[in-house]
Design brief:
Layout lengths: L5 H12 L15 H18 L12 H13 L13 E3 L8 E12 L4 E11 L4 E3 L1 H12 L2 E2 L1 H16 L4 E9 H4 L10 E6 L2 H4 L1 H9 L1
Parallel strand pairs: 2-5
Antiparallel strand pairs: 1-4, 2-3, 3-6, 6-7
Bound molecules: zinc ion.
Length: 217
């Protein structure tokens, strides 16, 4: 049985408290993973049949179960807090109080309005007070929240807030550039535009030179 860690609970609680959690129902949590996998595949089979595809075809026959597994284990694995990354937080014994910045974190997410890929990059920084965190964990937290049906604005705020709570500091900044394939492939069919969201708090908000350093580096 997979367990929800203390850090995962802290993350979820703060998002619920601030009204920033994804709209997730509780009742499906009890269905066993294998059972859920098959139920989703069954519905995908139906959708594909309604699109007039011949599901007896060699190439198509396993697509429903393949998509189902991909949803549960990969694209939407961030809906399940038992998949929250294992976090190691350390006391800031060396009193490091400079900006720590992680650039170009690859994010692949899914637009919740169209169920189509949004992908891009995030740059995340913090200035520690009492806690420091392993750098790869920042990437993993960002990627956990990306692995959900999302809107970019909510994703940006979720990552910021969760890092603030885990690191016990307001001093967190994030900027995300993303390409929305629902904009590229349909609707306005704009191939070039990308969307930028940012959120800066604590010293990143109040101190102009720190803000400039964040955007410049
Ligand atoms: Zn969309």
């Amino acid at each position: 049985m997979k367990k929800i860690t203390k850090e995962a609970n802290m993350a979820r609680d703060v998002l619920l408290l601030k009204g920033l959690e994804n709209p997730i129902l509780k009742e499906y949590n009890d269905i066993k993973e294998k059972e859920r996998e098959l139920l989703i595949a069954k519905h995908l089979y139906k959708i594909m049949s309604l699109l007039n595809l011949d599901l007896k075809n060699e190439s198509l026959k396993d697509t429903p179960i393949r998509i189902s597994k991909m949803y549960i284990n990969e694209l939407f694995s961030g809906l399940d807090y038992t998949n929250f990354p294992k976090i190691m937080l350390m006391d800031n014994k060396i009193k490091f109080n400079e900006m720590i910045i992680v650039r170009d974190i690859l994010l692949i997410s899914t637009c919740e309005h169209h169920f189509i890929t949004i992908n891009g990059q995030a740059t995340i920084a913090y200035i520690p007070e009492n806690k420091i965190i392993g750098l790869s964990k920042i990437n993993r937290i960002a990627q956990f929240y990306a692995k959900r049906p999302q809107i970019q604005e909510r994703l940006t705020k979720q990552i910021l807030l969760v890092l603030q709570v885990l690191l016990q500091t307001k001093n967190v900044a994030i900027v995300i550039h993303m390409d929305h394939f629902c904009v590229k492939a349909r609707g306005v069919r704009d191939n070039k535009s990308s969307t930028v969201t940012s959120c800066l708090e604590g010293l990143f908000k109040s101190d102009k030179s720190i803000r400039e350093e964040f955007f410049k580096k």
